[in-house]
Amino acid sequence: MTRYQLAEVGALLAEPARAAMLLALSDGTARPAGELARVAGVGAATASAHLKRLLDGGLLALHAQGRHRYYRLADDEVSAMLEALAMPRVRTAVPTPAGDPAVRRARSCYRHLAGQLGVAFCESLLAHDYLEAASEGLRLLPAGAAALAGAGLEPETAHRLLHLHGRGCLDWTERRLHVGGPLGVAMTSAMLDAGWLRRATQGRALVPSADGLRRLAGLGVRLDRPA
């Protein structure tokens, strides 16, 4: 990235309405222009101009379905950038982040599992040699796929995970890594399909089920229950 490209990205993020649109899409959803206009508190014409700038700047992608047009983040690299910018910059001891405890406990970070549960999941997989940090990023090992299948994921689903690459995504509340990239997205999708997690009715929080916590505990993942 050149200094001019960096300056352009900064200009795109500096406008509050555009920032609101990007944050609304950071849960991995695709939304129509009208909904994003309401989120940003602007009219349809203004929203259209903002969305065009975000598309031209490479931060958004457009999905057309018939006459309907839906906007989403361009990729998980954009989501990672937003997560990193959301992390408070401090020079002294890091305070406990404020905000919704459910979001800190478990949430979606552009469709992959983040928060305390996401960090604990990543660290447990690494500690048990189910996941390795390779030159191309994070990679699930055959023992990891077998462990996930043994914990209750569909064996075919667990096997497909072996062919996906992940990356360490720095968690903005925990300051440690969770699994991002295609591998992180696929693992989170599998846990949602299996009922280990469910999406909250609003926002980015992911709610682990009692059965999901039990199965994750079998993989060495520990998450204290909320008070």
UniProtKB/TrEMBL annotation:
GO molecular function per UniProt: cadmium ion sensor activity; DNA binding; DNA-binding transcription factor activity; lead ion binding
PROSITE patterns: HTH_ARSR_2 (PS50987)
Domain HTH arsR-type as annotated: residue spans: 1-93
InterPro entries linked: ArsR-like_HTH, HTH_ArsR_DNA-bd_dom, HTH_Metal-responsive_Reg, WH-like_DNA-bd_sf, WH_DNA-bd_sf
Any one GO biological process: response to lead ion
Database matches in SUPFAM superfamilies: Winged helix' DNA-binding domain (SSF46785)
PANTHER family: TRANSCRIPTIONAL REGULATOR-RELATED, TRANSCRIPTIONAL REGULATORY PROTEIN
Protein name: DNA-binding transcriptional regulator, ArsR family
Provenance organism: Dyella marensis
Classification of source organism: Bacteria, Pseudomonadati, Pseudomonadota, Gammaproteobacteria, Lysobacterales
